[in-house]
UniProtKB/TrEMBL annotation, chains A, B:
Name recorded for this polypeptide: S-formylglutathione hydrolase
One GO MF term: S-formylglutathione hydrolase activity
Protein species of origin: Vibrio alfacsensis
Gene3D superfamilies per the UniProt record, alphabetical: alpha/beta hydrolase (3.40.50.1820)
EC number: 3.1.2.12
NCBIfam families referenced in this protein's UniProt entry, alphabetically: fghA_ester_D
Family to which the UniProt record says this protein belongs: Belongs to the esterase D family.
Superkingdom per UniProt: Bacteria
Length: 279, 279
């Protein structure tokens, strides 16, 4: 699998790099970014946290705004930030920001015309890790995190692949997409009207079903504009209580949905993942 | 002086806020951003670091990308980020990024048509601090910092107003604008061809003339694309050597001109300013 370098910049003694590559899973060219800590070498491959961004984002939002590299460099953790959907002129789009490009919802679409490109689940769980592990000084030890739509992605992907990840975290996740406008619109377009398939892409439903879920840390601001209508953390909290799982949902007073919020608590999340990545 | 709130977000226990206001100095409406650390209150006014951004920037680049708030919150320092030029439909512009809007060069233009609005020097040294000190829980104790064009701005403004600031710092400053294309183009347009007026806006010239300059910290990446042609730190280093001043210029191996570089060393700069702000 060939990848092509787009940019690189030194940061906190490590490197931020962007690449483009042909994606078989998505049937288009994709861009991703990786942060490599200073101690990452072939003889010292480091673990990886995959970061899934929210609606409208690319690989750049987290890398430029989260302020994550100080702690990632200190802990010796690589971070990979993929794009949020397939891209390109022949990829189906929607006129609104919450469907189509920038809104892949980290699932495999089964409905035409979306099913031609929208296979973000396969991309994140299979194709991208294979690329990362064959091209960079990283190990196959990984955790997954994300924000909003990407928080939904991190929790659903992590719960469905508990052998592949060590831990899950999320900021302001769409916790119960079956019950909110963003999720209902996306699931209807991508998955059709079969509610059984929706349940396989809903963080709260999956957590309810999970027997022994991975450790999960969630931060949610209580001044988040999307809290009541779209994010619905109460469903996730209720699901966590149905069994004795290691799920912590923290309500953070006064914080909103922005990267200012993420930057405040990202060090906590990296330390949480480090506990599970370095055992 | 009335200011109008545009946004606010909690970050590291403090607040990032954006405002708009009518500027008398610039004869247009301006936007600025302020970070207030959690300990800033009327009974505990905190010192301020003014941050001057580079070409093409607004108040947002530093606030979103520098990762400065963790340390600023810990130290108890407010940060103010103004825009980089006057703005608005009736403000003269240039078709290139290095003159006109986004490129005010932190000086008072004397040449038509620029002199109608381009008085960033007066705005930064007089009008904006008066607004900040009358509207927020801050003291009149301040330092000044900036990047590239804003590094030029911080050093020139700091050296010319040593009673007003405690310390100066810069990332990748345009150190000798009289001798580089960016500076020559801007000075010719804004100041005309009188070289005497150019010398009053050139960091290296001002440092050469200074009797007892404020403490200055400069970081410069040696992988910066603009280093040889535009930034010319050697002139500043030579000027620092002409007298026994507290000027430290650090060449940072492998770093470029981006905010990845700034984010790596911004905590050093805030700690440097704190030493002088809290005496």
């Amino acid at each position: 699998m060939t990848i092509e370098s787009l940019s690189q910049a030194k940061v906190f003694g490590g490197w931020h790099k962007q690449y483009t590559h042909e994606s078989r899973a998505l049937n288009c060219n994709m861009r991703f970014a990786i942060f490599l800590p200073p101690n990452a070498t072939k003889s010292n491959p480091v673990p990886v946290v995959y970061w899934l961004s929210g609606l409208t984002c690319t690989d750049e939002n987290f890398m430029q705004k989260a302020g994550a590299f100080r702690m990632a460099a200190e802990l010796g953790i690589a971070i990979v930030a993929p794009d949020t959907s397939p891209r390109g002129d022949d990829v189906t789009d929607d006129e609104n920001y919450d469907l189509g490009k920038g809104a892949g919802f980290y699932l495999n679409a089964t409905q035409e015309p979306w099913s031609r490109h929208y296979h973000m689940y396969d991309y994140i769980t299979k194709e991208l890790p294979a690329i990362i592990e064959s091209n960079f000084p990283v190990s196959d030890v990984k955790s997954i995190s994300g924000h909003s739509m990407g928080g939904h992605g991190a929790i659903t992907i992590g719960l469905k692949n508990s052998d592949q990840y060590r831990s899950i975290s999320a900021f302001s996740p769409i916790s119960n997409p079956m019950q909110c406008p963003w999720g209902q619109k996306a699931f209807t377009a991508y998955l059709g009207t079969d509610i059984k398939s929706w349940k396989q892409c809903d963080a709260s439903e999956l957590l309810k079903q999970a027997k022994s879920p991975l450790p999960i840390l969630v931060d949610q601001g209580d001044a988040d504009n999307f809290l009541a209508e779209q994010l619905k953390p109460e469903a996730l909290i209720a699901a966590a209580k149905t069994h004795d799982s290691a799920v912590e949902v923290r309500m953070q007073s006064g914080y909103d949905h922005s990267y200012f919020f993420i930057s405040t608590f990202i060090a906590d999340h990296l330390n949480f993942h480090a506990k599970h990545l370095f055992v």
